[in-house]
Amino acid sequence: MSTTAHRPRAPTSDDSKSYESRRNQMQTLLIDDSRAMRSILRRIVDPLGFTLAEAADSQAALDAMKDGFVPDRFLIDWNMPVKNSYEFVTEVRKRPE
């Protein structure tokens, strides 16, 4: 049996443009009950070029999703009032989308 090692291809300038384009189109939902923490995380994430929306708790995030907002990824606080992040993720995974 023979194996062939594959070397990763070096990124090109086209790759970085493509990545930046995809990154800027992806919606990120930041969920944290602390306004200060949301502000800190926004200052970290904004320069990266992500499109960012915020929710003060997981129920507000679920309500936004019911109203049609479809994030591609989440940044979520583990311990929050109403529903913790585990309960939130469990409920999101049940959704048909």
Can you walk me through this structure?
With 97 residues, the protein is of the alpha/beta class. The protein contains four helices and three strands; from the N terminus they run H-E-H-E-H-E-H. It has helices spanning 13-25, 35-45, 58-66, 85-94, and strands at 27-31, 51-55, 73-76. It has a three-stranded parallel beta sheet. The protein is globular and about 40 Å long.
Topology:
Layout: H1 13-25, E1 27-31, H2 35-45, E2 51-55, H3 58-66, E3 73-76, H4 85-94
Parallel strand pairs: 1-2, 1-3
Which short descriptors sum up this protein?
44% helix, 97 residues, three-stranded parallel β-sheet, alpha/beta
Instruction: Identify the strand order in the major beta sheet.
Output: 2-1-3
Give the N-to-C terminal Cα separation. Answer: 43 Å
Indicate the low-confidence ranges by residue numbers.
1-8
Radius of gyration over C-alpha positions, nearest whole angstrom? 18 Å
Global outline: globular
Helix-strand makeup class: alpha/beta
The count of helical stretches stands at: 4
Largest sheet descriptor: 3 strands, parallel
| Element string (H = helix, E = strand) | HEHEHEH
Count of DSSP strands:
3
Oligomer: single chain
Helix content: 40-55%
* Average pLDDT level: 81
Strand content: 5-15%
